[in-house]
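Quick note —
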Amino acid sequence: MESAPPCVAIGVCGEFANLRRALPGREPGSFGYHSDDGYFYDGSGSMGELLGGQFLRRNEANGRGDGRKGTTVGCAVCWETDTISFWVDDVMVGKFLPNLAF
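Predicted structure written out below.
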């Protein structure tokens, strides 16, 4: 049986988002960028927008994630413009204007 690739998510959430139940972006009141598929999720429960691709890929030889050793992933929030941006290795891969009513 093939296992799912590991997933790391980076993002932001309000105080009532239950991150014990799901990753950022899968819960209402949260936003996140997911490593396994490279998508931005906005807490609505539907598939988000494709960003810069996966930042944790499956190693075809052993079926496990290789982690792309040395990859730096970041998330920035600008409260003045209500934007969230995501970065991979010093390259902005997405900028969003979600409703940040936390």
